[in-house]
Design goal:
This is Phenylalanine--tRNA ligase beta subunit. It catalyses: tRNA(Phe) + L-phenylalanine + ATP = L-phenylalanyl-tRNA(Phe) + AMP + diphosphate + H(+). Helix content is about 25%, strand content about 30%. With about 775 residues, it is of the alpha+beta class.
């Protein structure tokens, strides 16, 4: 929002200079993004009239002018401007004047004395270029200071408003806030109903009352649409960033800036029948004022007549009903459109307007008729004409629900003590209606404050009016207590430290991935799609962290990093019926040689078992590995990871087709685990050191080569014999002496009795029990 300081000070004039006003606005939440003068500094430049202009005796392109600057005697000035002529009024810099970049001195030009300089807009810093002298109107008084004539001591404020402060998208709204902040009197323009001089009206029907609760308009006949817009209005518009177009359009734009109410003027002679406010019918077309031909959809609200759409409601008018220099009769519209109906429609058509920007955020529905009367007043003053009665269609407007403000809550949030008298005075300055209640107030916000909905909104209003500078910065104080840290619970940083100690480096990647990645790489046919993705290749939520790891691997390989160890801790996202579920995951990737290049060991590539060792470290050796299939992993080198029989992750080598797809010279090994189960640690417990010696027995069995070794270990451990301390595999053999399709597995069994020394008979009985289990469940045979 850009505006002229002098315009604002006509409505409220606090005892603050420009910098002070800028600071006050910023500290009140209306951030001043820029504060700059409307023109560069210069002095001693006045309105002058050229009395005569004679050709320079020694130069073809110069003229010797007699110039009246309001002094006793006219000045002689040599001028080279092509439009210098007798009777022209233009700026003149007197001797001693300081212009942007240079100073005017008494001089001789080709032997002729020159006592000043006639100026162009460029020389005064008012334009980037010019073709000659800045021509002034006949109403410019000779001798008047140019800065005074053009109000060049003005300052331009640019506010960076937050979306909730739509009430400050107008000079009136900003003036209200400045008056509340500073206590300066507020003097807004008087808006009285204009005299009605004819009874003609246009019929108005609103078929969508929820979308347009209030619609008002009037016919103004006999206007002079070609009338010149007053200089003061042009100046205010331009200093607000709006170009002057024509008197009627300028008036609607001016009221938009002054009142915050968008308006539109239709050429009444181009309308067919009455005004209809309705949703567009699918397929209807409209040529907009910006020259864009749009095909309307059935969720777009339009202003129409019997022939079809005339304007996009709250966004832009149509070319067919636009006013022009020959317009004689206008229908002036002022309405309130529900923000939800307008929001996003202009953006869908790839443009934005001042009108849609305001309606999307909320326009004061209590100001609709006032703005219409203000625009009518200006039309009659500038363009003449006769105004008809106001036609209004009114449906239930948004209710302003009272909001409760508790004193105790306010003082607790702000950390200061404000009594009810102070708070009541601040609410009065904001023009909020309120009533005292037990322990606080019940406040009803005005129609122009859409942002006041909850108690915290009122607390913010009190804080900014009281002044953030007046809220002391107190150091927090509280009793500090050591919180219990259960030994059975690990922190995520423990997982990070464990992998970092093994040479892995942590990455952080987007939670968004390409849909093709989820579909092909992970076999997820229904990923969670994003309604507004930040990029076309980041359109769905990830169900695995491997996408970021693979992208980081490729990034590193492209930079000649041949050994890569990466991990990430983050979230994966899943759709379950009508709800969503987020799961914390830790994923890792290993690529390249198993160890950094060195002389002491033979070089080899990292394999499944190297990464399995890292997973065992993270899980504390509590997990099991079951052969399984995964679309991203090698069919013969993939395992699902189980903890207490429940799947918690995957480990495996990258599938050859993906290795080829990503053009990787070698295969990568990946793993992914749910984080939560890894954070539960086994608490060490004391076991008495045995006084009697342990007994070790070995058992070698033949089983089918497809039999998982883990299944045999699980079977033997399921016996839960109290004498068994440990069972472990120490040898696997296939070859001479072992039948085809079989493998030999050798296990050690460590036994101990804490009460006595084990006898051979007792040890033999345990071994016989274990062998019997292996025979029954796995068809094992004792190897001699």
């Amino acid at each position: 929002m850009q505006f002229s300081e002098h315009w604002l000070r006509q409505y409220v004039d606090p005892a603050l200079d420009s910098q002070g006003l800028s600071h006050a606005l910023t500290m009140a939440g209306l951030e001043v993004e820029a504060l700059e003068p409307v023109a560069p500094a210069f002095s001693k430049v006045v309105v002058a009239e050229i009395i005569s202009a004679e050709k320079h005796p020694d130069a073809d392109r110069l003229q010797v002018c007699k110039v009246d600057v309001g002094a006793v005697e006219p000045l002689q000035i040599v001028c080279g401007a092509p439009n210098a002529r007798a009777g022209l009024r233009a700026p003149c810099a007197l001797v001693g004047a300081e212009l942007p970049g240079f100073k005017i001195k008494q001089a001789k030009v080709r032997g002729v004395a020159s006592s000043g300089m006639m100026c162009s807009a460029k020389e005064l810093g008012l334009a980037e270029g010019s073709d000659g002298l800045l021509e002034l109107g006949a109403d410019a008084h000779v001798g008047q200071d140019i800065r005074e004539l053009f109000d060049l001591d003005d300052q331009l404020f640019t506010l960076k408003l937050t979306p909730n402060r739509a009430d400050c998208l107008s000079i009136t709204g900003i003036a209200r806030d400045v008056a509340a902040l500073t206590g300066a009197p507020l003097e807004l323009p008087m808006v009285d109903p204009v005299p009605v001089e004819h009874a003609r009206q246009l019929a108005v029907s609103v078929s969508e009352p929820a979308a347009c609760p209030r619609y008002a308009g009037r016919l103004i006949e006999g206007v002079d649409a070609a009338a010149a817009t007053p200089e003061w209005m042009v100046r205010r518009l331009e200093r607000s960033g709006i170009r002057s177009i024509s008197a009627i359009v300028d008036i609607t734009n001016y009221v938009l800036l002054e009142q915050g109410q968008p308006l539109h003027a239709f050429d009444a002679d181009k309308l067919q029948g009455g005004i209809q406010v309705r949703y567009a019918r699918s397929g209807e077309d409209l040529l907009l004022l910006n020259g864009q031909q749009v095909t309307l959809s059935d969720d777009m609200l339009v202003i129409a007549d019997d022939q079809g759409p005339l304007a996009l409601a709250g966004i832009m008018g149509g070319e067919a009903s636009a006013v022009g220099d020959t317009t004689r009769n206008i229908f002036l519209e002022s309405a309130f459109f529900a923000p939800a109906v307008i929001v996003g429609k202009a953006r869908r058509l790839n443009f934005s307007t001042d009108s849609s920007y305001r309606f999307e955020r909320g326009v004061d529905f209590g100001n609709t008729l006032i703005a219409l009367e203000r625009a009518s007043q200006l039309v009659l003053e500038i363009c003449g004409g006769q105004a008809g009665p106001v036609t209004e269609v009114l449906h239930p407007l948004p209710e302003r629900q009272p909001v409760r403000l508790r004193l105790a809550r306010l003082n607790s949030v702000l950390g200061i003590a404000l009594d009810a008298t102070v708070i009541g005075a601040l609410l009065e300055r904001l023009n909020f209606k309120f009533a005292a209640m037990d322990g606080g107030f019940e406040v009803t916000p005005p129609s122009y404050r859409f942002d006041i909905e909850i108690e915290e909104d009122l607390i913010e209003e009190v804080a900014r009016l009281h002044g953030y500078d007046h809220i002391p910065a107190l150091a927090p104080h509280d009793e500090q207590h050591m919180l219990p840290v259960p030994e059975s619970k690990r922190h995520r940083n423990w997982l990070r430290d464990t992998l970092a100690a093994s040479g892995y480096q942590e990455i952080v990647s987007y939670s968004f991935v390409d849909e093709s990645w989820e579909r092909d790489f992970l076999g997820n046919a229904n990923p969670i799609g994003l309604k507004n993705p930040i990029a076309s290749n980041l359109s769905v939520m990830r169900t695995s962290l491997w996408a970021g790891l693979m992208e980081s691997l490729i990034y590193n390989l492209n930079r000649k990093q041949e050994r890569v160890r990466l991990f990430e801790i983050g979230s994966a996202y899943f759709a379950e019926d009508s709800a969503y579920r987020e799961i914390g995951r830790i994923s890792g990737l290993a690529y390249g040689s198993a160890k950094p290049e060195q002389w002491a060991s033979e070089a080899r590539e990292v394999d499944f078992f190297d990464v399995k060792a890292e997973v065992d470290r993270l899980a504390g050796g509590r997990v099991q590995y079951v052969a399984a299939q995964h679309p991203a992993l090698h069919p013969g080198q993939t395992a699902q990871i189980l903890l207490q029989g429940q799947p918690i992750g995957w480990i495996g080598k990258l599938h050859p087709k993906w290795q080829q797809h990503y053009q990787l010279p070698r295969g990568a090994v990946l793993f992914e685990l749910d984080v939560e189960p890894l954070l539960h640690a086994q608490v060490p417990s004391y076991v008495q050191v045995g006084k009697f010696p342990p007994v070790r027995r070995d058992i070698a069995v033949l089983v089918d080569e497809a039999t998982p070794i883990q299944s045999l270990l699980d079977t033997m451990r399921s016996s839960k014999n109290a004498l068994i301390n440990d069972i472990a595999l120490f040898d696997v053999y296939q070859g001479k002496g072992v039948p085809e399709g079989k493998k030999s597995l050798a296990f050690l069994v460590l036994m101990q009795d804490t009460q006595k020394t084990l006898t051979d008979a007792e040890a033999d009985a345990v071994m016989a029990e274990l062998l019997d289990l292996l025979v029954q469940r796995h068809g094992a045979a004792l190897r001699n």
